[in-house]
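Re: weekly structure request thread

Next one in the queue (255 aa):
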Amino acid sequence: TDLNQPIIRNVPETVADADYVMIESTYGDRLHDRHVPPVKLLADYIQRTLDRGGNLVIPSFAVGRTQEMLYYILVDAGINPIWSDGIRISVSSEDSKAINENPEPKVILSASGMCEAGRIRHHLKHNLWRKESTVLFVGYQAEGTLGRRLYDGEKHVKLFGEDIEVNCEIGFLPGKSGHADRDGLTAWLAGFEKKPKFVFVNHGEDAVTDAFAGYLETEHGYKAFAPYSGTVFDLAEGKFLVCPKGVPVKKAETA
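Done, posted below.
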């Protein structure tokens, strides 16, 4: 993850010793783009959307990401980044739905971050079809999620039984994921005083887990493997007992 975050602690804690390590690989095959200042890019999205008279909808994870977005929007003006007169918190579901009855252009932060559930789906229903509005993603969108489909450019989606045409601007704020990139993951592994006996790679798309495991082996000398569901490894004996091949599973569309 970005090591210069305004709220969350910058440097992940390392571990000195372990026989076996299980590590995620969400961004194990790429590096985060740190060349574009996130505050300037966010400000551009906000200004452009409000100038059009639309809403800027940000699907955001509740812990960490939402607070970080508030910090970026308010801190340069010397305003309390978590609470100010310009913020309206919707406690109930009814309060959240009522936001869409207010025609004034605004920034809407709502969970869930991948648009799979929660109040964000109501805000998408009311803004995806509007050319004036923007949906801005500020975190990783897993394969098969509504967020990923929108990010990949899908032009028609179904929400609450209605077919919605996607006319709004779709944007992405790079480098704001809570997941480390390839170099960040590798740097954390380097914190061990002695290389672990084996590194199991998980929590990534199939090609990414395999690529990161291969990278750890060929470039850094680790014994690494990306196990598929059903794999059995005997920790005491240090060997695989069952090692099935991966079978792609297509996620059903959320009703």
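Helices lie at 38-52, 65-74, 93-98, 120-127, 146-151, 182-189, 206-220. The chain has seven helices and eleven strands.
Next request, please.
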